[in-house]
Amino acid sequence: MKWWGIVLIAVIITGGIILLFDFLGPFQGLKHERMLNILTIFLLITGLTTTLIKIDENMKKKH
Questions:
Q1: Where exactly are the transmembrane stretches of this chain (predicted)?
Q2: Is 31 left (phi over 0), alpha (psi -120 to 50) or beta?
Q3: Are 38 and 15 in contact, with CB atoms under 8 Å apart?
Q4: Nearest Cα residue to 49 out of 26, 32, 2, 19
């Protein structure tokens, strides 16, 4: 498995855990604002990871 695959899985697992804690845990008092912040960060990380994958693939094609 490529390094970015591992990164992507780690991001998904981390996001899932954070969301689970958000629904179940001690963060319930913060609700929507916190959810939006987490989702924004999650989407940013996912977007960056996807960009890195594309760059990585393009580099491999050139060589």
A1: 6-24, 36-55
A2: left
A3: yes
A4: 2
pLDDT category at 60 given cuts 50, 70, 90 is confident
Provide the residue type at 56 as one letter. D
Q: Which two tokens stand for residue 19?
A: 């969301």
- Per-residue model confidence (pLDDT) at position 1: 58
**Which amino acid type is present at position 8?**
L
Per-residue three-class SS string for 1-63: CCHHHHHHHHHHHHHHHHHHHHHHCCCCCCHHHHHHHHHHHHHHHHHHHHHHHHHHHHHHHHC
Q: How far is CA 3 from CA 8, 9, 10, 55, in A?
A: 9, 10, 11, 13
